[in-house]
Amino acid sequence: MRDLSNHANSLVSYQKELSLLMEKHTDGDGIHETLIPSLSLIRSSKTTFPSFSVHEPELCIVSQGSKVVMLADESFTYGPSSYLVISLDLPVSAQIIEASPDVPYLCFRLKLNLKDALDLVNEANPVSRKKLRSKRGLFVEQSTAPLLDAAVRLTRLLDNPEDIPILAPLIVREILYRVLQGEQGDVLRQMALRGSSSNRIAVVVEQLKREYMEPLRIDELAAAAHMAPSSLHRHFKEVTAMSPLQYQKQLRLQEARRLLLSESADAADVAFRVGYESPSQFSREYARLFGLPPISDITRLREQLGRVP
């Protein structure tokens, strides 16, 4: 019992220190890039509406507040007692659900390099190089004292910029090691292993991102993954929670929304630019994802962001 109590006290202590450091190095709400290239700090003094984007591989540790991330129809909620890992590019929606001016949402976000993960796999645990069944490319896991300790030490370097070039890579490597040693570390491990089914799905994802405007050709994607089309569908859904077609639609619709918001472009023109042949189909699928047809959604979004048309 004493060990459990000490562990819980350590977690709380690290969370408090991490919160103090993030408050110190964030000037108001928003995403704050840091002198450590892979690290950004996020602060919000209020809850938010869902935001849609394609997230690259990353680790998110929340020291205050909480957030829910939606991947297809699945939801993942995390806060100070847990952390989130995304192991490949995934289109998700994210919403801060717990935050206030007195206790703002604070998040430590670290970009993950799968090549570094592979190097660690080869050095630390060669036995785990066996191929395992594909798993969801996004997961939430309980925080540990060693992981939070490393996150605190990395954030402390912001107070001593001259130490960053030497020490930051070592601590980032330690953080990655801690994630790989977690209960769901196999998700990241399999994504990094060249030739694994998860890694081959990552290759398909990269191709879909490059060619999202083009008609979907399952045979070509299957050939790129060295899989049969039926096997591609099965593994792709296991990793991303959606089919290749659904993934492509998410990419198209999120890019369309970005264009509509940034360029004040015509909805029909944007539909063609992102690969749709039918503006009516585009409008239906847009409303299904974002809750409103294009023009109404962009009007609402501008109001939320405080922008004038």
TrEMBL record:
Top-level division of the source organism's lineage: Bacteria
Transmembrane domains' residue ranges = none
Task: Keywords in alphabetical order, please.
Answer: Transcription, Transcription regulation
Kindly give the SMART domains that the UniProt entry links to this protein: HTH_ARAC (SM00342)
Q: Which PROSITE patterns match?
A: HTH_ARAC_FAMILY_2
Enumerate the spans annotated as HTH araC/xylS-type domain: 202-300
Instruction: Offer an example of a GO molecular function term for this protein.
Output: DNA-binding transcription factor activity
Xref: InterPro entries: Homeodomain-like_sf (IPR009057), HTH_AraC (IPR018060), Tscrpt_reg_HTH_AraC_N (IPR009594)
Identify the PANTHER family for this entry.
Answer: ARAC-FAMILY TRANSCRIPTIONAL REGULATOR, TRANSCRIPTIONAL REGULATORY PROTEIN
**This chain belongs to which protein, by name?**
AraC family transcriptional regulator
Organism source for this protein?
A: Paenibacillus rhizosphaerae
